């Protein structure tokens, strides 16, 4: 059976788990063949000899198992990152957190190195992108998940920025003794514990998703500890329904300014705080 006929055969099997079933069949074929889209399209009439292996992957994907875990990669901010089961899959919305950090860093003193702490680095996408985009930067990236830290290191090496990032096992600020941090950035767990996840998200690690009974407990802990450490800037991703409770919570602090931003769907998705120093 040709590549073209194979795509047609299996597209129907994925129509209930994705809005691009044919494209996903192609992605799985490219993964097996170790080829790109151009090669695949130029060879549509060539015989496909790995149908048995493809069938197994199609069956797995049909259970809502994430495509990124199957092909071990995801795109983020125009770059390709390694992903694996047990570590949160990058989301496009988190690119906006990078944008916010870049805007703040532009206002800082260009004559000195920028020191950044990332809390909950996961696959390392935030730290790696900041290291790629900012020349004079030093980042400490922490996580409580050793598997995540190992993956983050691989992504740093893949993108050639391992000399700019120190990966460290730490629960929030627990193992952070540095006093020269300019900015803390985090995409922490912020979903309420009783929230019913979509089927595809259930395969991702719960400790990277659920933030407590209400959902914003970890966010508040990060705000508290960042303030106690006398760090000027804090940037976090958050849940769409957390703007009002967090606004009220911030009234307890001596803050120079704070703002919220929306994601691509116009939901509230993150905040920036500048503490008074």
Shape type: elongated
Mean pLDDT: 95
CATH architecture of the largest domain: 3-Layer(aba) Sandwich
- Sheet-strand content, in percent, reads 15-25%
What would you report as the Rg, rounded to the nearest angstrom? Answer: 21 Å
Structural class based on helices, strands and sheet pairing: alpha/beta
Predict the CATH topology of the largest domain: Rossmann fold
Write the topology of this structure.
Elements: H1 3-11, H2 21-33, H3 37-42, H4 51-61, H5 67-71, E1 73-76, E2 79-82, H6 95-106, E3 114-119, H7 125-133, E4 137-143, H8 146-158, E5 165-169, E6 183-186, E7 191-192, E8 210-212, H9 217-228, E9 233-237, H10 243-249, E10 255-262, E11 268-275
Parallel strand pairs: 3-4, 3-6, 4-5, 6-9, 7-8
Antiparallel strand pairs: 1-2, 9-11, 10-11
